[in-house]
Amino acid sequence: MIGRILPALAALWITCTLTATASIIPQPKEMTTHGDAFPLTSKLTVTTPAELEAIAESLEQWFTERAPATNAEQPPATTKVTLAIDTSGTLPAEGYRLETRDHTITITGADAAGVFYGVQSLKQLFSADEAATIPATTITDAPRFRWRGMHLDVSRHFYSVDEVKRFLDHMAAYKMNVFHWHLVDGPGWRIEIKRYPKLTEIGAWRKDKTSEPWNWQATEINPKGQQQGDYGGYYTQDQIREIVAYAKERFITVVPEIEMPGHSYAVLVAHPEFACPTNEILTEGLRGKDVFCVGNPGTTEFLQHILDEVLELFPSQYIHIGADEVPKSAWLECPKCTGLMKDQRLADGDALQSYFVKQMEAYLKSKGRTLIGWDEIIEGGLPEDAAVMVWRDANFAKSALEHGHPVVLCPNSHCYFDYYQTEDHNSVPPAIGGFTPTTKVYSFQPESVATNDAQRALILGVQGTVWTEYIQNMDHLEARIFPRMPALSEVAWSPADQRDFESFTKRLNHHKARWKAAGIQFYDGPLDGKQIKPKN
User: Fold this and answer.
1) Burial code of 445-469, b = ≥16 C-beta within 10 A, e = fewer?
2) What region holds the Beta-hexosaminidase bacterial type N-terminal domain (predicted)?
3) Are 485 and 174 in contact (CB under 8 A)?
4) What is the pTM of this model?
């Protein structure tokens, strides 16, 4: 067999005794049990077409690591595994059918992704007690939404290649399939661009203040480049290819975000020639107006050259350009920008931003890609073929849908995992604020923003968002996404009318046991985040 074996982390997911009906997250669409479980054995035969070889190999390894020791006097029965692609057309995209009975396991997928998701469900059925059994079960399942995303900001705090892979493993275990990689922001530039080496020589490093509370206005990037003791890092292009390939093996699409025209302190320290001439770049955030000079013709060329290298690294259809929280007042003080506004008859800063975004959209379209941006791209008018990622309230989603634009929903009210998940702030590491307990995540109803079937069809899906101002390491990151990511996975995958929080809570208890056994950090307080009052 060929292909890559899943790493040890993924191999640790199933490490406790489970019941067939209580464990799977996200909840399958249809699931029935057929009686007694059968023991897992080390004697295994796998039948699979060539296109599923990598999945088969990783599953074979997984079985080998879990099967109990064989008894020479009682040779084990052979477990027969069949992986196949459905040719009847009865399964929707990414759907699968899993049947386990009497030492026979069959996983049939609408496509390779469906087979992979069937394997994830099989792992969650496994009982890892001494008996090491698999229940006799039939599952027919498929996702609700095609975009089941997780966002990770690596600009404010940097995560290594191995840590990003660990994050991807967590996503795959819960059938999340889009990794929104926030590579660029004011506090740090994290992607190697060979044409512009100063972006990482200068923009990837800042004065180390990790021992201090996060302060937007305290970011200090030295225009002379990395200094001794600086904080930062970046990914080489080879490392990015490695991560994109790793994600692909787990049926995860990586969508890069190259933030523009705002949140650009790091790049403008490296290349101040693309800042407005009247704008002194003091610092990222409130004190500075870290925005590209849109009136400078060289700015567009510079950004398009960057996008050219980005497109070579990322095969995703969607390319995220950010475009949120732009300090447009800097443009109104800039003779180049106001001159462009006059020439193009643009009334205000919103119109100038729309002009800029439309340029980027047209360029990406010429390369066969689709622009997606935060919901601020609605301000001033949307580019014709752009998609909108909604982080604010539902009105922005409604506006995009009314104009026929696809949307991804990640409102901060339900999907910001950097927010507190408990009212007891003293019991957890500091957060940026907010309050998004697991109950709130699970209650999310994405389709409530749509008024008809045509609009519902434009909802690509949902996404959990992790900004890392206050998340400095992997332990803190895991404690923010668990258990909220599994809750969102059920919103993204399971039929809305089948979701039941009480059932989810019971299944979640089994998952907490395996997280603990695997050394995965998680929040283990009340799921509604209410502070437990001490008894008198």
Assistant:
1) ebeebbeeeebeebbbbbbbbbbbb
2) 23-142
3) yes
4) 0.93
Strands 147-153 and 459-464: parallel
CB atoms within 10 A of CB 86: 16
Whole-number Å distance between alpha carbons of 314 and 162:
19
Q: Which of 53, 201, 325, 423 is catalytic?
A: 325
Query: Band of the pLDDT at 17, cuts 50, 70, 90?
Result: very low
Radius of gyration of the chain (CA): 25
> For the chain, how are helix, strand and coil distributed in percent, rounded to 5?
35, 20, 45
Whole-number pLDDT of residue 127: 63
Strand 253-260 to 231-232 pairing: unpaired
Most confident of 7-16, 39-48, 99-108, 174-183: 174-183
Query: Dihedral sign, CA of 416, 360, 177, 140?
Result: positive
Instruction: Find where tokens 């030295």 sit.
Output: 222
Burial 8-41 (b: 16+ CB within 10 A, else e): ebbbbbbbbbbebeebbbbbbbebebeeebbbbb
pLDDT in tens, 476-522: 999 999 999 999 999 999 999 999 999 999 999 999 998 998 999 99
Q: Which domains does the chain have, with CATH numbers?
A: 30-66+76-141 (3.30.379.10), 147-502 (3.20.20.80)
**Strand pairing of 318-322 and 184-185?**
unpaired
One-letter amino acid for residue 485 of the chain: M
CB atoms within 10 A of CB 393: 13
**Can 57 be counted among the known catalytic residues?**
no
